[in-house]
Design brief:
The protein has 618 residues and is of the alpha+beta class. It is 50% helix and 8% strand. A hairpin with a 5-residue loop joins strand 11 and strand 12. Bound molecules: NADPH dihydro-nicotinamide-adenine-dinucleotide phosphate. The site of NADPH dihydro-nicotinamide-adenine-dinucleotide phosphate has 21 residues, from helix 18, strand 12, helix 20 and helix 21.
């Protein structure tokens, strides 16, 4: 029988699950089968810990009060005061009593905790940075350049915040404020404890709330979206696409599939893959992963777009008939669907072999759910990043190509010498959106898709099928359902589109620039809230005006894309309706993640910026 290192009743330091912080615990018992110790924290919490997560008291050096501290807190200046809001912090009463006993008091405990973080003893947290509890209150500061020096001095810089829980200390506040924060904190802490003790007990299966309605929701979406795609495209081809004619007649199976079309789709996909591999464009690093690594990404999406335009232009000159794509639109969409399913199967299969730290924070351990949401975070074949590639290239550039196909089809179908103004508006608005995304390719590295979601059916289908074949619905609609608009109306729509674009672009660029370099002098006028993860939150500028201003701009643009189609049918407005649902859900997901990530700092942000773009929906 393996021997145990610690005896019952011994007072030691136990690591708080999911963090690198150690607290004083008493050994209650030891289970020789599971090799787990049952320990009791000073506030009465009992947990089971592995031997590796327990250290003798002697391995923590005590510091004399008044000695110069090497902890980050001390470097913040004399006003900084240790008042950690850690999950393991005992209730007030017990802390007070502890300080008169021989136990280290709260301040000492914190000093030790901070010191532990500066030693090689620091351990990586379980899971990922998103699920880390962060109950540290924050302070509001201007994003001034001198702040840089303070930040630089902080424990191995802010970059490492992804790898370990950072503790920042804030100035003393009035007692009344403390009390309010305390009661709030106790609730958050209780929640964090409940979830982290669960995580700790379960070693292989991740226990978490599943998004998208869990497994049933994932199944429904996976089956429902391809059917919806089929119905929408069939409806769009109908001479009268009104709801009264729903459902549209289904074509014969032979009309749905053609191997030549599938071959053409594969050609497109691999052409884009080839362009992605071109050694042009700069290479940048993504956000740090949980193990501190940063993946490298080549930014050549815009070049790929230009080269694709040249290749398509040359093909048309050599007699390639783009009308073929319009005639086989449904088959192309189903070919892309088949490909995205095959890709999802491959992605899931390979994800089963990767180490746990390479799995996505969104994955759950449930096969169906993980197949949907994506199991592996950054699947790569060598340096070829499959998710990053699919996010912007075959689907997004494909969307522009589909719009061009529709423009040519409209001229042919309606015997026009030039495309309609409505078609020109739809094409140019969406072209601007795609070119903008490719020009600002680096910004995608800080989006939820890249940092949180794995690569599975959701993104594979979304990127490769939904974007090119559903986002081009307005142009597809206009081929058979012309809508003549006057220039004054066009000007109003253009103004709407531009206002949406300005909000969208400025908000995204501001956040991206801030995340890239929080001390950028150009952002010095912005106010920020400090969070104990090391990252700050913007509370002025676009992000102080409303939460998720970028979604607001995107939504305004979505409306501007549909308006050129007129008001005869609801079909061209499908995108606006769908996108609203997507953004409502996405905003809720992000709020949830940020609340977990930033704890009380996020609540403070919500108090400072109470406006949401969908205030009454949830
Ligand atoms: P965001 O780019 O809005 O990223 C959300 C993240 O921003 C949060 O998780 C948080 O991450 C950070 N953040 C939130 N608030 C603040 C703040 N006050 N200060 C600093 N950072 C903050 O989300 P998405 O990835 O969802 O969207 C990116 C863009 O893509 C949006 O413009 C969206 O409209 C668009 N989009 C378009 C779709 C389409 O189909 N057309 C689909 C989905 C998105 P952290 O703090 O960790 O940096």
């Amino acid at each position: 029988m393996p021997s145990r290192k610690f005896a019952d009743g011994e007072v030691v330091r136990g690591r708080w699950p999911g963090s690198s912080l150690y607290y004083e615990v008493e050994i209650l018992s030891h289970d020789s089968n599971s090799q787990l110790y049952t320990v009791k924290y000073k506030d009465g919490t009992e947990l089971e810990l592995k031997e590796n997560d327990i250290k003798p008291l002697t391995s923590f050096k005590q510091r004399k009060s008044g000695s110069s501290s090497s902890s980050p807190s001390r470097r913040r200046g004399s006003r900084s005061r240790s008042r950690s809001r850690s999950p393991g912090r005992p209730p007030r009463s017990s802390r007070r009593s502890a300080s008169v006993s021989h136990q280290p008091d709260v301040k000492e405990t914190k000093k030790e905790v901070l010191e532990v973080k500066l030693t090689p003893l620091v351990l990586k947290p379980f899971g990922n940075s998103i699920s880390r509890y962060n109950g540290e209150p924050e302070r509001i500061e201007r994003n001034e350049v001198p702040h840089k020096s303070i930040q630089e001095k902080l424990h191995l810089s802010q970059e490492s915040s992804y790898g370990s829980t950072q503790y920042s200390l804030r100035p003393r506040r009035e007692e009344i404020k403390f009390k309010e924060m305390d009661s709030k904190e106790e609730k958050v802490v209780a929640k964090a404890r409940a979830s982290s003790s669960r995580t700790f007990e379960v070693t292989s299966t991740q226990t978490k709330d599943l998004e998208f309605g869990g497994v049933p929701g994932a199944c429904l979406i996976m089956l429902g979206l391809p059917v919806l795609l089929l119905l929408l495209l069939l409806m769009c081809k109908q001479p009268d696409p009104s709801l009264l004619n729903f459902p549209p007649p289904l074509p014969a199976f032979n009309d749905l599939w053609e191997t030549r079309v599938f071959g053409a789709y594969l050609l497109w996909f691999f052409l884009q893959a080839l362009l992605y591999l071109l050694p042009i464009g700069k290479v940048v690093e993504g956000t740090p992963l949980t193990d501190g690594r940063r993946l490298k990404y080549r930014l050549n999406g815009f070049y790929a777009f230009v080269l694709t335009a040249v290749i398509i232009g040359a093909s048309v000159c050599w007699g390639v008939e783009l009308y073929y794509v319009y005639n086989h639109f449904l088959q192309f969409a189903l070919g892309a669907t088949a490909f995205s399913v095959a890709l999802s199967v491959y992605l899931y299969a390979r994800a089963l072999k990767v180490p746990r730290n390479e799995l996505s924070p969104a994955s759950s351990g449930n096969a169906v759910y993980d197949f949907f949401v994506g199991h592996e975070l950054n699947p790569r074949i060598g340096a070829f990043d499959l998710k990053y590639f699919c996010e912007l290239r075959p689907g997004l550039i494909g969307w522009v190509l589909m719009n061009l196909v529709m423009l040519l089809a409209e001229m042919r179908f309606q015997n026009r010498a030039a495309p309609s103004l409505a078609m020109i508006l739809v094409n140019s608005f969406q072209l601007l959106y795609v070119v903008d995304a490719l020009w600002n390719e680096e910004a995608i590295l800080t989006t939820m898709d890249i940092i949180h979601d794995g690569f599975g059916f959701m993104l594979a289908f979304g990127d490769l099928v939904w974007v090119p074949f559903i986002y081009s619905l307005q142009a597809f609609y206009l081929v058979r359902h012309p809508n003549e608009i006057s220039w004054p109306v066009a000007c109003v729509i253009i103004a709407l589109k531009l206002s949406g674009y300005v909000i969208f672009r400025c908000a995204n660029s501001q956040k991206n620039a801030f995340r890239k370099n929080p001390t950028d002098p150009r952002l010095a006028h912005l106010k920020t809230i400090h969070t104990s993860t090391g990252k700050n939150l913007l509370v002025s500028g676009w992000w102080g005006f409303v939460r998720h201003p970028n979604y607001l701009g995107d939504l305004i643009m979505a409306l501007a894309w549909s308006l050129p189609c007129g008001f005869n049918h609801i079909l061209p407005y499908f995108y606006v309706a769908y996108f609203t649902v997507l953004l409502v859900h996405r905003e809720a997901r992000d709020e949830h993640h940020c609340r977990k990530k930033y704890g009380l700092a996020w609540e403070k942000y919500c108090q400072r910026v109470p406006y949401r773009i969908f205030p009454y929906i949830y």
